[in-house]
Amino acid sequence: MNQSGTTIAAIATAIVPQQGSVGIVRVSGAAAMAIAQQLFHAPGKQKWESHRILYGYVRHPKTQAIIDEALLLIMQAPRSYTREDVVEFHCHGGMMVVQQVLQLCLEQGARLAQPGEFTLRAFLNGRLDLTQAESIADLVGARSPQAAQFALAGLQGKLAQPIRQLRATCLDILAEVEARIDFEEDLPPLDEEGIKTQIQQVLQDVEQILATADRGELVRTGLKVAIVGRPNVGKSSLLNAWSRSDRAIVTDLPGTTRDVVESQLVVGGIPIQVLDTAGIRETEDRVEKIGVERSRTAAQNADLILFTIDATAGWTAADQEIYDQVKHRQLILVINKIDLIASPHPSGAGKRLLLSPLPPLPTIQTAAALNQGIDQLEQAILEIAQAGTLQAANLDLAINQRQAEVLTRARNSLQQVQTTIANQLPLDFWTIDLRAAIQALGEILGEDITESALDKIFSRFCIGK
């Protein structure tokens, strides 16, 4: 990603036709103020000062035609997001006006910003470290309140602070070791036990932070859950009861759902994409056959399958056939229509479920039509989702995949230092892995990081950020 010092511009808000009351065009760089003065007319005696909002009109610099009635926000360096001169045109929302204002900025000498380039400049200019920059992207993309809280914790430096402290400790250890190498005769002997204690404490702290990785990934990306079963077992009723909306058509006719119906939920702070699939069965109906194939695909791609059966019908050959197709996946068995077991019902009242062919599975009984069993279903999902995800006891943050990979390298290097000490190797060998750990910890903060790594990180940002 090229940081050439040029002035950049981009639309900084989501633009949807006929939706949104405000659209913002952001400009950052040395020419930002000059571009604003060329395009914006502020009537009266309004002062063009930093951190002031001006009212006026965006005009075409040649024809003087009014493009929009707007506000202009001025933030001069270094008191801006990028620590450069920044101006923002706050226009009426919609596609046309905002695109026109952006085009005028480009014609006045700005270039279109690359994805994440505003935040990249904030990082390169020292306003943010890399953990804070990544937290901004996480905050923008947060799909649950807990994901947003993790992102805010990172933005406030709750990850950077312990990482800096760990790195400082490693630097102190390295200085002690190197001093003994260079000035052994002039210094007291190295406190080897003290060094081992310090390294062990750093390792424990690193492990504690690493333990947040799985939980962070779960909260950021969420789960894809597919409701699977034969026709008319109540899959759509289950989706509607769970999402508290009529997303899927519910009738007594088998095969009503012809395609995959999707709903977005948040359960225990975890985003969940729920897929109500068409009933899986052999059929000659061409449209339903397509739906069945899509259901099979959804089941194979899901993180978790809610295998739903009809309590009034018991375990059937059709259920067994579907189970054989999905049994290698993570499953919860949902026994639906449990309310009909004790009352007369033409489809098989009073039949007992014959589940002996199944291995032990998490099992939930529901009456979706009556909204019963949903809380228990959510709890079962949370238990499966969180199984094996460790959380540090006194950290309210969660690291991302890049940070986890770099922190794992730091941990491995520190463990190698311990092995080197245990094997009584010379002090020169200690310094090799200490330096590697220090470099890895610095890489988390954005120190000594390669340009290609920055390109990869910031490419996932939106253009206006």
Write the layout of secondary structure elements.
Blueprint: E1 8-11, E2 22-28, H1 32-39, E3 40-41, E4 52-59, E5 66-75, E6 86-92, H2 95-107, E7 111-112, H3 117-124, H4 130-140, H5 145-155, H6 160-182, H7 192-210, H8 213-221, E8 223-228, H9 235-243, E9 261-267, E10 270-276, H10 286-301, E11 304-310, H11 317-326, E12 331-336, E13 363-365, H12 374-386, H13 401-422, H14 427-445, H15 451-458
Parallel strand pairs: 1-7, 8-10, 8-11, 11-12, 12-13
Antiparallel strand pairs: 1-2, 2-6, 3-4, 4-5, 5-6, 9-10
In short:
Helices cover 43% and strands 16% of the residues.
Q: Explain this structure to me?
A:
The protein is α/β, with parallel strands linked by helices and 465 residues long. It has helices at 32-39, 95-107, 117-124, 130-140, 145-155, 160-182, 192-210, 213-221, 235-243, 286-301, 317-326, 374-386, 401-422, 427-445, 451-458, and strands at residues 8-11, 22-28, 40-41, 52-59, 66-75, 86-92, 111-112, 223-228, 261-267, 270-276, 304-310, 331-336, 363-365. The model is unreliable at 247-251, 253-259, 280-284, 344-350 and 388-395 (pLDDT under 50).
